[in-house]
Specification:
heterodimer; A: 132 residues; mainly alpha; 2 domains; rod-shaped; B: 233 residues; alpha/beta; Spore Coat Polysaccharide Biosynthesis Protein SpsA, Chain A; 8 helices; 7 strands; binds guanosine-5'-triphosphate; binds magnesium ion; transmembrane (chain A); transmembrane helix (chain A)
């Protein structure tokens, strides 16, 4: 009974945290939905840990609880893989941004140099005409 | 200039080289004196070059940000260059620029005017889950906005200065955020929203973006996005 209380409460606190983060726009929709979906599985399970015993039997796992542990680890692994994938995509994007920025800077600097060259030449011709 | 207002047409475009030239050309023909900004969102075809050749200003994003990302860039441009009105138009030729003055006319009394299908004009229809999703969206958003909105996902919208200022600061890049969430956000903050019936034309080229299988997913996501928009502040 005590255990059910602890696990159930943990689930509810997690749920509240995620909803609040989503409300404050600190979490993008796609991640928020993932965690919300997970909680809709976890909360019933934390209240009724025996729920998966039947499925565990079918798969040859000793008890529903170990099945939950196993599935939990698989899920976390998948999340890690997904995050690595996202980070790779982000790195590729910052790389493109840096390149774009360097190209723009090169263009601006070339233009500035050209303009400086022109004004220098103009000054010189003016000086010549004053002398002559 | 339309009705004495400085007007910017913003066109978000992804791989629309086949139609963007005609779209820009038609806008410049029908609405002389307006500026056209095409936001090329990492297209892999010649969208940017074709748009520039047709006389549009082109902003090229380094990689795809989605319609919402492209539109915030557009609104920032409008804000920085002090336009009175910004009108979003699709790059596929579905929006008839001859409706633009009608939309702009209403901007004295409203902040955001939507060119809407299903409001009497034209015979554009959808069926199945996509229709249910649109029905649900229009019911909830009409309630929030205090006026009938039949086409909440329309990409044909005109914004006045007040609205441009907000959109330049805040415009979601998430899925359906550019349409649904912006409406919820604007309605809640007291911006006045109105719609004008328009007839939509067929795509000029390219392939339509929805299939029957995607319609069901669309419904689910629409419900999720709307719920989220409603609990968000
Ligand atoms: N910037 C940007 N624009 C996009 C993107 N995807 C689509 N668009 C543009 O958004 C507009 C609307 O896209 P469509 O594919 O026509 O969407 P739709 O009008 O709802 O659907 P159909 O025309 O019926 O396929 C067009 O101008 C597209 O070029 C994107 O990822 N980024
Ligand atoms: Mg279209």
């Amino acid at each position: 009974m005590k255990l059910t209380l602890v696990t159930g409460l943990t689930g509810l606190i997690l749920l509240a945290t995620i909803v609040e983060l989503l409300r404050r726009r600190q979490l993008r929709e796609k991640y928020g939905m993932l965690w919300l979906g997970l909680l809709f599985v976890v909360i019933p399970l934390s209240l009724f840990p025996r729920l998966l015993d039947g499925v565990a039997d079918l798969l040859g796992v000793a008890s529903g609880v170990s099945l939950v542990l196993f599935l939990g680890i698989v899920f976390l692994l998948l999340v890690c893989i997904h995050l690595s994938w996202e980070v790779s995509a982000l790195e590729e994007e910052t790389r493109t941004l840096a390149e774009d920025f360097a190209l723009l800077r090169a263009e601006v600097e070339a233009e500035r140099a050209e303009r400086a060259e022109w004004t220098r030449r103009l000054d010189r011709t003016e000086m010549v005409s004053h002398d002559g | 200039m339309v009705n004495g207002k400085r007007l910017l047409i913003i066109i978000p475009a992804l791989n629309e080289a086949a139609s963007i030239g005609d779209v820009v050309g038609e806008i410049r023909g029908e609405l002389p004196g307006v500026d056209v900004l095409v936001v090329d969102d990492g297209s892999t075809d010649h969208t940017a070059a074709v748009a520039a050749a047709a006389g549009a200003r082109v902003a090229r994003l380094p990689y795809n940000l989605g319609v919402g990302g492209a539109m915030r860039l557009g609104y920032r441009y409008a804000h920085d260059h002090d336009y009175d009105v910004a009108v979003q138009v699709d790059a596929d030729g579905q929006h008839d620029p001859r409706y633009v003055p009608k939309l702009v006319d209403l901007l004295d009394d409203y902040d955001l005017v939507i060119g809407a299908r299903f409001a009497g004009e034209g015979e554009y229809t959808v069926r199945g889950p996509r229709r249910w999703a649109m029905g649900m969206l229009s019911l909830v958003l009409s309630g929030l906005a205090g006026t009938t909105l039949t086409d909440t996902t329309s990409g044909f919208r005109a914004a006045n200065r007040r609205m441009i200022e907000m959109f330049a600061r805040w415009y979601p890049a998430e899925y359906l955020g550019d349409t649904v969430e912006t409406l919820v956000h604007a309605a809640r903050r007291g911006y006045r929203i109105q719609q004008v019936p328009v007839a939509m034309r067929r795509r000029m080229a390219g392939t339509p973006s929805h299939s029957p299988a995607r319609a069901m997913i669309y419904l689910g996501r629409a419900v999720a996005v709307l719920t989220l928009a409603l609990i968000r502040r």
